[in-house]
TrEMBL record:
<dbReference type="InterPro" id="IPR020846">
    <property type="entry name" value="MFS_dom"/>
</dbReference>
<dbReference type="Pfam" id="PF07690">
    <property type="entry name" value="MFS_1"/>
</dbReference>
<feature type="transmembrane region" description="Helical">
    <location>
        <begin position="231"/>
        <end position="250"/>
    </location>
</feature>
<feature type="transmembrane region" description="Helical">
    <location>
        <begin position="54"/>
        <end position="74"/>
    </location>
</feature>
<keyword id="KW-0812">Transmembrane</keyword>
<feature type="transmembrane region" description="Helical">
    <location>
        <begin position="86"/>
        <end position="105"/>
    </location>
</feature>
<feature type="transmembrane region" description="Helical">
    <location>
        <begin position="270"/>
        <end position="290"/>
    </location>
</feature>
<feature type="transmembrane region" description="Helical">
    <location>
        <begin position="180"/>
        <end position="199"/>
    </location>
</feature>
<feature type="transmembrane region" description="Helical">
    <location>
        <begin position="21"/>
        <end position="42"/>
    </location>
</feature>
<feature type="transmembrane region" description="Helical">
    <location>
        <begin position="150"/>
        <end position="174"/>
    </location>
</feature>
<feature type="transmembrane region" description="Helical">
    <location>
        <begin position="111"/>
        <end position="129"/>
    </location>
</feature>
<dbReference type="GO" id="GO:0015112">
    <property type="term" value="F:nitrate transmembrane transporter activity"/>
</dbReference>
<dbReference type="InterPro" id="IPR011701">
    <property type="entry name" value="MFS"/>
</dbReference>
<keyword id="KW-1133">Transmembrane helix</keyword>
<feature type="transmembrane region" description="Helical">
    <location>
        <begin position="360"/>
        <end position="382"/>
    </location>
</feature>
<dbReference type="GO" id="GO:0042128">
    <property type="term" value="P:nitrate assimilation"/>
</dbReference>
<keyword id="KW-0472">Membrane</keyword>
Length: 430
Protein backbone atom coordinates (compact mmCIF):
# COMPACT_ATOMS: atom_id res chain seq x y z
CA UNK A 1 0.00 0.00 0.00
CA UNK A 2 1.43 3.35 -1.06
CA UNK A 3 1.42 6.17 1.45
CA UNK A 4 2.30 9.83 1.76
CA UNK A 5 6.02 10.48 1.90
CA UNK A 6 7.58 12.00 5.02
CA UNK A 7 10.79 13.03 3.25
CA UNK A 8 11.41 14.88 0.01
CA UNK A 9 14.13 13.24 -2.08
CA UNK A 10 14.23 15.82 -4.83
CA UNK A 11 16.60 13.89 -7.11
CA UNK A 12 14.51 10.72 -6.95
CA UNK A 13 11.94 9.57 -9.52
CA UNK A 14 11.09 6.37 -7.62
CA UNK A 15 7.50 5.73 -6.65
CA UNK A 16 4.31 7.42 -7.76
CA UNK A 17 4.80 10.20 -5.20
CA UNK A 18 8.14 11.47 -6.52
CA UNK A 19 7.16 10.85 -10.14
CA UNK A 20 4.05 12.97 -9.61
CA UNK A 21 6.09 15.57 -7.73
CA UNK A 22 8.36 16.16 -10.73
CA UNK A 23 5.67 15.97 -13.41
CA UNK A 24 3.32 18.35 -11.60
CA UNK A 25 5.93 21.11 -11.17
CA UNK A 26 6.96 20.64 -14.81
CA UNK A 27 3.31 21.03 -15.88
CA UNK A 28 3.12 24.23 -13.83
CA UNK A 29 6.42 25.45 -15.36
CA UNK A 30 5.22 24.89 -18.94
CA UNK A 31 1.89 26.64 -18.27
CA UNK A 32 3.67 29.66 -16.80
CA UNK A 33 6.09 29.65 -19.74
CA UNK A 34 3.08 29.99 -22.03
CA UNK A 35 1.20 32.40 -19.78
CA UNK A 36 4.07 34.92 -19.67
CA UNK A 37 5.49 34.11 -23.10
CA UNK A 38 4.22 37.39 -24.54
CA UNK A 39 5.53 39.62 -21.72
CA UNK A 40 9.20 39.88 -22.85
CA UNK A 41 8.05 40.46 -26.44
CA UNK A 42 5.75 43.36 -25.50
CA UNK A 43 8.17 46.09 -26.69
CA UNK A 44 7.83 44.62 -30.21
CA UNK A 45 4.10 43.87 -29.90
CA UNK A 46 3.40 47.35 -28.50
CA UNK A 47 5.08 48.95 -31.51
CA UNK A 48 3.45 46.69 -34.10
CA UNK A 49 -0.10 46.96 -32.74
CA UNK A 50 0.34 50.66 -31.80
CA UNK A 51 -0.73 50.10 -28.19
CA UNK A 52 -0.96 52.96 -25.70
CA UNK A 53 0.20 52.63 -22.09
CA UNK A 54 -3.41 52.16 -21.04
CA UNK A 55 -3.99 49.44 -23.62
CA UNK A 56 -0.82 47.60 -22.58
CA UNK A 57 -2.09 47.81 -19.00
CA UNK A 58 -5.46 46.38 -20.05
CA UNK A 59 -3.79 43.36 -21.67
CA UNK A 60 -1.82 42.75 -18.46
CA UNK A 61 -5.01 42.99 -16.39
CA UNK A 62 -6.81 40.64 -18.80
CA UNK A 63 -4.04 38.03 -18.61
CA UNK A 64 -4.44 37.93 -14.84
CA UNK A 65 -8.20 38.45 -14.47
CA UNK A 66 -9.24 35.19 -16.17
CA UNK A 67 -7.10 33.22 -13.76
CA UNK A 68 -8.99 34.51 -10.72
CA UNK A 69 -12.18 32.69 -11.70
CA UNK A 70 -10.27 29.76 -13.21
CA UNK A 71 -8.40 29.09 -9.95
CA UNK A 72 -11.63 28.92 -7.97
CA UNK A 73 -13.10 26.45 -10.47
CA UNK A 74 -9.91 24.39 -10.75
CA UNK A 75 -9.72 24.00 -6.96
CA UNK A 76 -13.21 22.51 -6.93
CA UNK A 77 -12.46 20.27 -9.94
CA UNK A 78 -9.38 18.87 -8.17
CA UNK A 79 -11.65 17.85 -5.29
CA UNK A 80 -14.15 16.15 -7.65
CA UNK A 81 -12.36 14.99 -10.84
CA UNK A 82 -8.94 14.58 -9.27
CA UNK A 83 -5.79 16.55 -10.15
CA UNK A 84 -4.76 14.22 -13.00
CA UNK A 85 -7.86 14.64 -15.18
CA UNK A 86 -8.04 18.33 -14.29
CA UNK A 87 -4.43 18.96 -15.36
CA UNK A 88 -4.71 17.10 -18.67
CA UNK A 89 -7.91 18.89 -19.68
CA UNK A 90 -6.50 22.29 -18.70
CA UNK A 91 -3.32 21.69 -20.75
CA UNK A 92 -5.20 20.64 -23.89
CA UNK A 93 -7.82 23.40 -23.77
CA UNK A 94 -5.31 26.02 -22.62
CA UNK A 95 -2.92 25.29 -25.48
CA UNK A 96 -5.48 26.56 -28.03
CA UNK A 97 -5.23 30.32 -27.30
CA UNK A 98 -1.45 29.95 -26.91
CA UNK A 99 -1.25 28.55 -30.44
CA UNK A 100 -3.78 30.98 -31.88
CA UNK A 101 -2.70 34.31 -30.32
CA UNK A 102 -0.62 34.84 -33.47
CA UNK A 103 -3.88 35.53 -35.30
CA UNK A 104 -4.32 38.77 -33.33
CA UNK A 105 -3.86 41.84 -35.54
CA UNK A 106 -5.34 44.63 -33.43
CA UNK A 107 -5.73 45.69 -29.80
CA UNK A 108 -9.15 44.05 -29.26
CA UNK A 109 -8.23 40.61 -30.61
CA UNK A 110 -4.91 40.64 -28.75
CA UNK A 111 -6.73 41.57 -25.52
CA UNK A 112 -9.19 38.67 -25.91
CA UNK A 113 -6.39 36.17 -26.58
CA UNK A 114 -4.48 37.32 -23.49
CA UNK A 115 -7.68 36.91 -21.48
CA UNK A 116 -8.07 33.33 -22.74
CA UNK A 117 -4.41 32.45 -22.17
CA UNK A 118 -4.76 33.62 -18.56
CA UNK A 119 -6.81 30.51 -17.73
CA UNK A 120 -3.64 28.36 -17.72
CA UNK A 121 -2.36 30.31 -14.73
CA UNK A 122 -4.73 28.15 -12.66
CA UNK A 123 -2.26 25.28 -13.15
CA UNK A 124 -0.70 26.41 -9.88
CA UNK A 125 -3.70 25.15 -7.89
CA UNK A 126 -3.39 21.69 -9.44
CA UNK A 127 0.29 21.50 -8.53
CA UNK A 128 -0.28 22.56 -4.91
CA UNK A 129 -3.24 20.21 -4.54
CA UNK A 130 -1.46 17.25 -6.13
CA UNK A 131 1.69 17.78 -4.07
CA UNK A 132 -0.38 17.95 -0.86
CA UNK A 133 -1.89 14.55 -1.73
CA UNK A 134 1.54 12.94 -2.03
CA UNK A 135 3.33 14.20 1.11
CA UNK A 136 2.76 13.87 4.85
CA UNK A 137 1.94 16.92 7.02
CA UNK A 138 5.49 17.31 8.33
CA UNK A 139 6.85 17.98 4.83
CA UNK A 140 3.84 19.47 2.98
CA UNK A 141 5.10 23.05 3.29
CA UNK A 142 8.50 22.18 1.87
CA UNK A 143 7.11 20.02 -0.94
CA UNK A 144 4.52 22.64 -1.92
CA UNK A 145 7.15 25.38 -1.89
CA UNK A 146 9.57 23.43 -4.08
CA UNK A 147 6.95 22.51 -6.70
CA UNK A 148 5.54 26.04 -6.51
CA UNK A 149 8.95 27.63 -6.89
CA UNK A 150 10.15 25.42 -9.72
CA UNK A 151 6.83 25.89 -11.51
CA UNK A 152 6.97 29.67 -11.06
CA UNK A 153 10.41 29.46 -12.62
CA UNK A 154 8.60 29.23 -15.95
CA UNK A 155 7.63 32.88 -15.64
CA UNK A 156 11.30 33.83 -15.35
CA UNK A 157 12.77 31.44 -17.89
CA UNK A 158 10.28 32.61 -20.52
CA UNK A 159 11.55 36.18 -20.05
CA UNK A 160 15.02 34.94 -20.96
CA UNK A 161 14.17 32.35 -23.60
CA UNK A 162 11.33 33.89 -25.63
CA UNK A 163 13.48 36.86 -26.82
CA UNK A 164 16.07 34.29 -27.99
CA UNK A 165 13.42 32.27 -29.86
CA UNK A 166 12.14 35.54 -31.32
CA UNK A 167 15.65 36.55 -32.42
CA UNK A 168 16.27 33.12 -33.98
CA UNK A 169 13.06 33.38 -36.01
CA UNK A 170 14.01 36.89 -37.17
CA UNK A 171 17.46 35.55 -38.05
CA UNK A 172 15.79 32.91 -40.22
CA UNK A 173 14.39 35.68 -42.40
CA UNK A 174 10.99 36.41 -40.88
CA UNK A 175 9.82 39.90 -39.90
CA UNK A 176 9.47 40.94 -36.26
CA UNK A 177 5.68 40.97 -36.70
CA UNK A 178 5.80 37.33 -37.80
CA UNK A 179 8.46 36.28 -35.28
CA UNK A 180 6.53 36.98 -32.07
CA UNK A 181 3.55 35.06 -33.48
CA UNK A 182 5.56 31.98 -34.47
CA UNK A 183 7.45 32.06 -31.15
CA UNK A 184 4.22 31.28 -29.26
CA UNK A 185 3.91 27.93 -31.06
CA UNK A 186 6.77 26.67 -28.86
CA UNK A 187 4.93 26.81 -25.48
CA UNK A 188 1.78 25.44 -27.14
CA UNK A 189 3.63 22.31 -28.26
CA UNK A 190 5.24 21.97 -24.82
CA UNK A 191 1.79 21.98 -23.19
CA UNK A 192 0.52 19.12 -25.38
CA UNK A 193 3.60 17.01 -24.64
CA UNK A 194 3.17 17.50 -20.88
CA UNK A 195 -0.55 16.64 -21.14
CA UNK A 196 0.44 13.20 -22.45
CA UNK A 197 3.13 12.75 -19.77
CA UNK A 198 0.73 13.78 -16.98
CA UNK A 199 -1.91 11.30 -18.14
CA UNK A 200 0.56 8.46 -18.59
CA UNK A 201 2.76 8.71 -15.51
CA UNK A 202 0.84 10.29 -12.58
CA UNK A 203 -1.86 9.15 -10.16
CA UNK A 204 -4.34 11.25 -8.17
CA UNK A 205 -3.27 9.79 -4.81
CA UNK A 206 -0.45 7.55 -3.56
CA UNK A 207 -2.93 4.66 -3.68
CA UNK A 208 -4.23 5.31 -7.20
CA UNK A 209 -6.66 7.51 -9.14
CA UNK A 210 -9.92 8.68 -7.63
CA UNK A 211 -12.03 6.21 -9.61
CA UNK A 212 -9.67 3.35 -8.65
CA UNK A 213 -9.71 3.97 -4.90
CA UNK A 214 -13.28 5.22 -4.57
CA UNK A 215 -12.15 8.64 -3.41
CA UNK A 216 -15.30 10.41 -4.56
CA UNK A 217 -17.46 8.02 -2.52
CA UNK A 218 -15.48 8.33 0.70
CA UNK A 219 -14.99 12.08 0.24
CA UNK A 220 -18.34 13.60 -0.78
CA UNK A 221 -17.95 16.43 -3.26
CA UNK A 222 -20.49 18.69 -1.56
CA UNK A 223 -18.82 22.04 -1.05
CA UNK A 224 -18.32 23.21 2.52
CA UNK A 225 -18.99 26.92 2.08
CA UNK A 226 -18.26 27.54 5.76
CA UNK A 227 -14.63 28.03 4.77
CA UNK A 228 -15.69 31.42 3.40
CA UNK A 229 -16.39 32.57 6.97
CA UNK A 230 -12.91 31.57 8.15
CA UNK A 231 -10.88 34.74 8.61
CA UNK A 232 -7.60 32.82 8.28
CA UNK A 233 -8.48 31.97 4.66
CA UNK A 234 -8.92 35.66 3.85
CA UNK A 235 -5.74 36.67 5.68
CA UNK A 236 -3.81 34.15 3.57
CA UNK A 237 -5.65 35.38 0.47
CA UNK A 238 -4.48 38.94 1.15
CA UNK A 239 -0.96 37.75 1.88
CA UNK A 240 -0.82 35.85 -1.39
CA UNK A 241 -2.20 38.86 -3.25
CA UNK A 242 0.80 40.82 -1.98
CA UNK A 243 3.50 38.27 -2.84
CA UNK A 244 2.32 36.21 -5.80
CA UNK A 245 0.21 39.11 -7.08
CA UNK A 246 3.34 41.25 -7.18
CA UNK A 247 5.32 38.43 -8.78
CA UNK A 248 3.04 38.02 -11.79
CA UNK A 249 2.77 41.79 -12.10
CA UNK A 250 6.54 42.13 -12.16
CA UNK A 251 6.85 39.28 -14.67
CA UNK A 252 4.47 41.26 -16.91
CA UNK A 253 5.96 44.76 -16.56
CA UNK A 254 9.66 44.19 -15.82
CA UNK A 255 10.86 44.12 -19.45
CA UNK A 256 8.93 47.28 -20.30
CA UNK A 257 10.22 48.98 -17.14
CA UNK A 258 13.86 48.18 -17.93
CA UNK A 259 13.43 49.26 -21.57
CA UNK A 260 11.66 52.54 -20.77
CA UNK A 261 13.52 53.52 -17.59
CA UNK A 262 17.06 52.29 -18.24
CA UNK A 263 16.92 52.14 -22.07
CA UNK A 264 17.94 48.49 -22.35
CA UNK A 265 17.41 46.37 -25.46
CA UNK A 266 14.51 43.91 -25.52
CA UNK A 267 16.86 40.94 -25.02
CA UNK A 268 18.82 42.61 -22.16
CA UNK A 269 15.61 43.67 -20.43
CA UNK A 270 14.29 40.12 -20.80
CA UNK A 271 17.48 38.76 -19.23
CA UNK A 272 17.21 40.89 -16.08
CA UNK A 273 13.47 40.25 -15.82
CA UNK A 274 14.32 36.55 -16.12
CA UNK A 275 16.80 36.76 -13.24
CA UNK A 276 13.89 37.88 -11.04
CA UNK A 277 11.90 34.79 -11.99
CA UNK A 278 14.94 32.49 -11.88
CA UNK A 279 15.26 33.05 -8.13
CA UNK A 280 12.27 30.70 -7.79
CA UNK A 281 14.71 27.82 -8.18
CA UNK A 282 15.50 28.20 -4.48
CA UNK A 283 13.71 31.17 -2.85
CA UNK A 284 10.14 29.85 -2.72
CA UNK A 285 11.43 26.48 -1.55
CA UNK A 286 13.41 28.28 1.16
CA UNK A 287 10.19 29.88 2.40
CA UNK A 288 8.49 26.48 2.63
CA UNK A 289 11.47 24.81 4.29
CA UNK A 290 11.77 27.53 6.93
CA UNK A 291 7.99 27.42 7.44
CA UNK A 292 8.14 23.68 8.17
CA UNK A 293 11.11 24.12 10.51
CA UNK A 294 9.44 26.98 12.37
CA UNK A 295 6.17 25.05 12.47
CA UNK A 296 7.94 22.08 14.03
CA UNK A 297 9.24 24.25 16.88
CA UNK A 298 6.60 26.94 17.33
CA UNK A 299 3.49 25.53 15.66
CA UNK A 300 1.12 27.44 13.39
CA UNK A 301 1.73 30.66 15.31
CA UNK A 302 5.38 30.49 14.29
CA UNK A 303 4.41 29.93 10.65
CA UNK A 304 2.20 33.04 10.80
CA UNK A 305 4.95 35.18 12.32
CA UNK A 306 7.38 34.04 9.62
CA UNK A 307 4.92 35.00 6.87
CA UNK A 308 4.36 38.43 8.41
CA UNK A 309 8.12 39.01 8.64
CA UNK A 310 8.99 38.13 5.04
CA UNK A 311 6.05 40.20 3.76
CA UNK A 312 7.37 43.21 5.68
CA UNK A 313 10.82 42.78 4.14
CA UNK A 314 9.28 42.38 0.69
CA UNK A 315 7.45 45.70 1.06
CA UNK A 316 10.60 47.49 2.18
CA UNK A 317 12.55 46.04 -0.75
CA UNK A 318 9.90 47.16 -3.23
CA UNK A 319 10.13 50.74 -2.01
CA UNK A 320 13.93 50.64 -2.39
CA UNK A 321 13.52 49.29 -5.94
CA UNK A 322 11.12 52.08 -6.81
CA UNK A 323 13.62 54.73 -5.69
CA UNK A 324 16.60 53.21 -7.55
CA UNK A 325 18.32 55.84 -9.66
CA UNK A 326 20.65 53.49 -11.53
CA UNK A 327 20.43 50.08 -13.18
CA UNK A 328 22.91 48.62 -10.68
CA UNK A 329 20.87 49.78 -7.70
CA UNK A 330 17.66 48.61 -9.36
CA UNK A 331 19.06 45.10 -9.87
CA UNK A 332 20.40 44.86 -6.30
CA UNK A 333 17.11 45.99 -4.77
CA UNK A 334 15.15 43.77 -7.18
CA UNK A 335 17.08 40.73 -5.98
CA UNK A 336 16.40 41.65 -2.35
CA UNK A 337 12.65 42.11 -2.64
CA UNK A 338 12.47 39.07 -4.96
CA UNK A 339 14.01 36.87 -2.26
CA UNK A 340 11.45 37.86 0.38
CA UNK A 341 8.55 37.90 -2.09
CA UNK A 342 9.22 34.33 -3.17
CA UNK A 343 9.83 33.21 0.42
CA UNK A 344 6.41 34.72 1.22
CA UNK A 345 4.87 32.58 -1.52
CA UNK A 346 6.36 29.46 0.06
CA UNK A 347 5.47 30.51 3.60
CA UNK A 348 1.83 31.14 2.59
CA UNK A 349 1.42 27.65 1.18
CA UNK A 350 3.25 26.26 4.19
CA UNK A 351 0.05 27.21 6.05
CA UNK A 352 -2.69 26.59 3.43
CA UNK A 353 -2.88 22.73 3.63
CA UNK A 354 -3.56 22.90 7.40
CA UNK A 355 -6.46 25.36 7.38
CA UNK A 356 -9.14 22.83 6.38
CA UNK A 357 -7.96 19.32 5.52
CA UNK A 358 -11.34 18.32 4.04
CA UNK A 359 -11.34 21.22 1.57
CA UNK A 360 -7.69 21.57 0.60
CA UNK A 361 -8.59 22.15 -3.06
CA UNK A 362 -11.08 24.91 -2.28
CA UNK A 363 -8.81 26.69 0.19
CA UNK A 364 -5.88 26.38 -2.20
CA UNK A 365 -8.04 27.74 -5.01
CA UNK A 366 -9.33 30.71 -3.01
CA UNK A 367 -5.89 31.71 -1.77
CA UNK A 368 -4.43 31.14 -5.23
CA UNK A 369 -7.16 33.30 -6.77
CA UNK A 370 -6.19 35.99 -4.25
CA UNK A 371 -2.75 36.08 -5.83
CA UNK A 372 -4.26 36.82 -9.20
CA UNK A 373 -6.69 39.35 -7.75
CA UNK A 374 -3.71 41.21 -6.34
CA UNK A 375 -2.01 41.05 -9.72
CA UNK A 376 -5.11 42.42 -11.44
CA UNK A 377 -5.48 45.31 -9.00
CA UNK A 378 -1.78 46.15 -9.31
CA UNK A 379 -2.27 46.13 -13.08
CA UNK A 380 -4.58 49.15 -12.80
CA UNK A 381 -1.71 51.13 -11.25
CA UNK A 382 0.60 50.31 -14.16
CA UNK A 383 -2.16 51.10 -16.66
CA UNK A 384 -2.79 54.62 -15.34
CA UNK A 385 -1.61 57.54 -17.46
CA UNK A 386 -1.28 59.61 -14.27
CA UNK A 387 0.88 57.22 -12.21
CA UNK A 388 4.44 56.38 -13.19
CA UNK A 389 5.87 52.88 -12.80
CA UNK A 390 8.05 54.24 -9.98
CA UNK A 391 5.01 55.52 -8.08
CA UNK A 392 3.16 52.24 -8.69
CA UNK A 393 6.00 50.19 -7.16
CA UNK A 394 6.08 52.54 -4.15
CA UNK A 395 2.32 52.29 -3.51
CA UNK A 396 2.45 48.50 -3.74
CA UNK A 397 5.39 48.37 -1.29
CA UNK A 398 3.41 50.33 1.29
CA UNK A 399 0.34 48.10 0.80
CA UNK A 400 2.44 44.94 1.29
CA UNK A 401 3.69 46.30 4.62
CA UNK A 402 0.11 46.99 5.77
CA UNK A 403 -0.95 43.42 4.92
CA UNK A 404 2.07 42.06 6.83
CA UNK A 405 0.60 43.75 9.93
CA UNK A 406 -2.78 42.07 9.28
CA UNK A 407 -1.08 38.66 9.01
CA UNK A 408 0.83 39.41 12.22
CA UNK A 409 -2.36 39.74 14.27
CA UNK A 410 -4.09 36.73 12.67
CA UNK A 411 -4.15 33.60 14.85
CA UNK A 412 -3.39 30.59 12.69
CA UNK A 413 -4.40 27.36 14.37
CA UNK A 414 -4.06 23.95 12.86
CA UNK A 415 -7.11 21.82 12.22
CA UNK A 416 -6.84 18.49 14.00
CA UNK A 417 -5.47 15.77 11.71
CA UNK A 418 -3.02 12.88 11.94
CA UNK A 419 0.52 14.14 12.27
CA UNK A 420 3.77 12.26 11.86
CA UNK A 421 6.51 12.70 14.37
CA UNK A 422 9.29 12.86 11.79
CA UNK A 423 11.48 15.93 11.72
CA UNK A 424 10.89 18.01 8.56
CA UNK A 425 13.66 17.15 6.11
CA UNK A 426 14.82 17.99 2.62
CA UNK A 427 16.92 15.10 1.40
CA UNK A 428 19.06 16.02 -1.56
CA UNK A 429 19.72 12.49 -2.75
CA UNK A 430 17.84 9.65 -4.33
Amino acid sequence: MEKQLTKLNIFSFKGVQMRTFHITWLMFFVCFFGWFGLAPLMPTIRAELHLSKGQVGNTIIASVAATIIARLIIGKLCDTWGPRKTAVRLLIIGSLPVFLVGLAHDYTSFLLFRLAIGVIGSSFVITQFHTSMMFAPNIKGTANAVTGGWGNLGGGVTNMVMPLIFAAIVGAGFTKAEAWRYAMIVPGVMMLIIAFVYWKFTKDTPNGNYDEVGYAKTNPSKTDWSILTDWRVWALTMAYAMCFGMEITFDNVASLHFVDTFHLSQSSAGFWAGIFGFMNIFARALGGIVSDKVGGKFGMRGKGLLLAGVLLLEGMGLILFAQSGSLTMAIISMLSFALFLKMSNGATYGIVPFINSKNVGMVSGIVGAGGNLGGMLFGFLFKSEHITYVQAFTYIGITVMVVSAIVLITRFQKQAEPQTADEPALALGA
